[in-house]
What does this fold into?
Amino acid sequence: MLPRLVRVMQTRHVAGVLLAVSLTAIFGCLHLLSEVARLDDARVRLETAVIRLQKDQEVEDNDGLVVIYNKVPKTGSTTLAGMAYELCQENRFNVIMIDTKGRSKTVFLSDQMRFITNITSWTEKKPALYHGHVAFIDFSR
It folds into this structure.
């Protein structure tokens, strides 16, 4: 009689543990589904806000923006420059190639200053993306 009682208790214990694990898994899945829905709603609201801000933003906000893209061989930099040329009119920015063929791999400080002065004072071409193979320029100096 005792072994049968032990088996019945073990079966009930296993059933209870399985029920607890199942309920935990179900409530965990329900919680995760509600979190996913909440995050998706937040993503939609964020995308809507970004689109609204992009439409409201005027060109004057980026008038002084200058980006210098130093091309690196065999990394798709020509493709990136091509995409910039394709998008520049629609997005109202200028793309300017920096031609430094045959130049030194280092640039004197005086030449760095002249280059920085040229790109920052050329207001007719701002906002601008400058691209090319450029030696290191220390803008902090």
